[in-house]
């Protein structure tokens, strides 16, 4: 008998562990040359920002009256000098630090706050949803440039104030996306089942909702970084972001505006950096969206 | 239709009140005393108290808001600290220039954006699509204040074809449909048009590609209809969404014109705002933002209602 029983029990089949969602995303991303190239450029820019003190040839704040507005290709000053005689290359390298901080940091902060607001509103529904979302609508009713300028104009210039303003601009946008995906997920059967089985709200959100909503919100948030870069440098361009003599691309563009008649190529350089960074964030975000198969 | 319009209107009222509260609070989140800009630094305590009660700043916040909102509703937004003129008059004279600029930019952006998007959508996946989509991507990624500088460098500094800044020869009074005036509009309008161009091109591309893949288009083609006729159906189906995107973009451009107006010294609301920020002219700052934000809310409402009038299937919640 024992022998027969042993025959019936099937031998354990080696089931390969399913590769999982993220490795699929990574796999698809690796086959997207545009997204990879954009990522490579971004990594270089971040590396430049981190290593600025080691690779910048000069002190970015040290000027000289006798070598103001040297053209590109000047001996010893590869990218020329600015209106106060400071080395452009060094300033562009150091500028990457503040520009990246100002452009990138507001998005993850807004991602966390906006997701919490949106998920709570979407999951709670009813009156809580109405109260939260109507408040979000108020901030959403401002064009983003106007809201950013209004807040930092009222708060005054400075890095922290600019970061706060930009974060406030992006929270409602992220909260809206978070709320709409959460509302969709909430009405699905398995969430109902979890609720019927008596799981507390926090557990349902953690186990069933988060995993499904974070992807789309994340993709949306990455697409905001490019906007944030342009807006952040725009605030500095208006004199509302970092203060001189700190190097930041938008601020450099502003102070070099007077030089467009004498030295147009040098004056346009900081904008090229903003443009390149912003387009790479955009391309990478597009690639990520396709790899994660999230509809816009 | 009418019911929908009324419903939307009811929805807009709380948002508009909220927007006005945010604008009201701007002065109170500003660091320092709002009176600091008006009073001399050695003002006596007595004078300070007098001014405080004159401006109602000694009242509780909700009461201050109610008073301010009541005055704002009747068109009284206070007086500019810098010029002493009524805020509303300053905003109105500046907004004419901003509207001219934003409308010109929207028209340019819409024309080129729809052509780009349409071509990309029809030839979806091919190299034409890649080029057109690439251009659209450049449009949404470019820092437009920088693009403005580059255009000034190219067309004003190097070629000398167009003026680099200002609103025209005689200021607002000299406004006319002559080349003397229009040449000042070209560079800022083209610069500004890049933003809606990219967005409209992307929207139309996905719209057209979507419609082309639908059954009724296949059916039309199977019936032997010429491509020309099929395209007419595609355009008719894409038009409502395209027009609503255009309307929203107009609102965005009006509200977000500060960067471009600063680059070109265009005498609109953006320049007014920029000046107000640096002179700490809080009444102008607050008033301009209120008017621009309310206008944006209004544009949103009009677009929604118009869209549902053109295409009853679409009713945004």
From TrEMBL, chain A:
Main localization category: membrane
One Pfam family recorded for the sequence: OppC_N
Keyword Transmembrane helix among record annotations: yes
Protein location: Cell membrane
InterPro entries recorded: BP-dependent_transpt_permease, MetI-like, MetI-like_sf, OppC_N
Transmembrane segments: 34-56, 98-125, 145-171, 213-240, 260-284
Swiss-Prot/TrEMBL keywords: Cell membrane, Membrane, Transmembrane, Transmembrane helix, Transport
Bilayer topology annotation: Multi-pass membrane protein
Gene Ontology CC entries for this record: plasma membrane
Annotated ranges, domain ABC transmembrane type-1: 96-285
A GO BP entry: transmembrane transport
Family listed: Belongs to the binding-protein-dependent transport system permease family.
Protein name per UniProt: Peptide/nickel transport system permease protein
Organism: Rhizobium wenxiniae
Automatic annotation (TrEMBL), chain B:
Keyword set includes Cell membrane: yes
Name this protein carries in UniProt: Peptide/nickel transport system permease protein
Topological category with respect to the lipid bilayer: Multi-pass membrane protein
Domain ABC transmembrane type-1: 95-307
PROSITE patterns: ABC_TM1 (PS50928)
InterPro entries referenced in this protein's UniProt entry, alphabetically: BPD_transp_1_N (IPR045621), MetI-like (IPR000515), MetI-like_sf (IPR035906)
Record flagged with keyword Membrane: yes
GO cellular component: plasma membrane
Cellular location(s): Cell membrane
PANTHER family attached to this UniProt entry: DIPEPTIDE TRANSPORT SYSTEM PERMEASE PROTEIN DPPB-RELATED
Family: Belongs to the binding-protein-dependent transport system permease family.
Transmembrane intervals: 12-30, 99-123, 135-161, 181-201, 241-264, 284-306
A Pfam family it matches: BPD_transp_1
GO MF annotations in UniProt: dipeptide transmembrane transporter activity
Keywords (A to Z) from UniProt: Cell membrane, Membrane, Transmembrane, Transmembrane helix, Transport
């Amino acid at each position: 008998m024992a022998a027969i029983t042993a025959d019936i029990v099937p031998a354990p089949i080696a089931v390969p562990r399913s590769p999982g969602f993220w490795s699929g995303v990574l796999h698809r991303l690796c086959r997207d040359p545009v997204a990879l190239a954009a990522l490579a450029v971004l990594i270089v820019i971040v590396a430049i920002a981190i290593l600025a003190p080691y690779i910048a040839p000069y002190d970015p704040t040290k000027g000289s009256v006798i070598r103001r507005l040297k053209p590109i290709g000047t001996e010893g000053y590869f990218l020329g000098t600015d209106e106060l005689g400071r080395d452009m290359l060094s300033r562009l390298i150091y500028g990457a630090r503040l520009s990246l901080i100002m452009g990138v940091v507001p998005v993850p902060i807004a991602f966390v706050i906006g997701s919490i607001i949106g998920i709570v509103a979407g999951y709670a529904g009813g009156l809580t949803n109405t109260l939260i979302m109507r408040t979000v609508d108020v901030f959403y009713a401002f064009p983003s440039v106007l809201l950013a300028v209004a807040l930092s104009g009222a708060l005054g210039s400075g890095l922290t104030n600019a970061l706060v303003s930009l974060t406030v601009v992006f929270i409602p946008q992220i909260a809206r996306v978070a709320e709409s995906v959460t509302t969709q997920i909430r009405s699905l059967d398995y969430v109902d089942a979890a609720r019927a089985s008596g799981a507390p709200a926090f557990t349902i959100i953690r186990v069933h909702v988060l995993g499904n909503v974070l992807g789309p919100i994340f993709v949306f948030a990455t697409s905001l970084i490019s906007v944030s870069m342009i807006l952040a440098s725009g605030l500095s361009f208006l004199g509302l972001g970092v203060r001189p003599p700190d190097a930041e691309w938008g601020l450099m563009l502003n102070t070099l505006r007077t030089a467009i008649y004498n030295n147009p190529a040098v004056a346009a350089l900081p904008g090229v950096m903003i443009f390149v960074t912003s387009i790479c964030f955009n391309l990478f975000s597009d690639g990520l969206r396709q790899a994660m198969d999230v509809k816009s | 239709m009418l019911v929908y319009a009324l419903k939307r209107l009811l929805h807009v009222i709380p948002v508009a009140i909220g927007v006005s509260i945010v604008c009201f609070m701007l002065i109170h989140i500003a660091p320092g005393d709002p009176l600091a800009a008006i009073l001399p630094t050695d003002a006596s305590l007595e004078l300070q108290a007098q001014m405080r009660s004159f401006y109602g700043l000694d009242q509780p916040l909700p009461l201050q808001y109610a008073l301010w909102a009541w005055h704002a509703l009747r068109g009284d937004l206070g007086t500019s600290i810098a010029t002493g003129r009524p805020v509303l008059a300053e905003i109105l004279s500046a907004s004419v220039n901003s509207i001219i600029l934003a409308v010109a930019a929207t028209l340019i952006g819409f024309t080129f954006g729809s052509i780009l998007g349409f071509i990309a959508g029809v030839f979806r996946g091919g190299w034409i699509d890649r080029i057109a989509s690439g251009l659209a991507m450049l449009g949404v990624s470019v820092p437009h204040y920088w693009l403005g500088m580059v255009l000034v460098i190219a067309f004003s500094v190097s070629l000398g074809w167009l003026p680099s800044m200002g609103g025209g020869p005689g200021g607002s009074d000299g406004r006319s449909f002559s080349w003397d005036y229009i040449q000042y509009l070209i560079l800022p309008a083209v610069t500004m048009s890049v933003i809606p161009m990219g967005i409209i091109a992307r929207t139309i591309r996905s719209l057209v590609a979507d419609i082309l893949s639908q059954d009724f288009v296949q059916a039309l083609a199977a019936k032997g209809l010429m491509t020309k006729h099929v395209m007419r159906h595609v355009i008719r189906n894409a038009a409502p969404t395209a027009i609503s995107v255009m309307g929203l973009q107009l609102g965005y451009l009006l509200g977000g014109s500060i960067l471009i107006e600063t680059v070109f010294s265009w005498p609109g609301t953006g320049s007014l705002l920029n000046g107000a920020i640096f002179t700490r002219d809080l009444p102008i700052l607050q008033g301009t933002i209120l008017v621009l934000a309310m206008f944006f809310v209004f544009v949103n409402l009009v677009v929604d209602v118009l869209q549902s009038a053109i295409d009853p299937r679409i009713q945004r919640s």
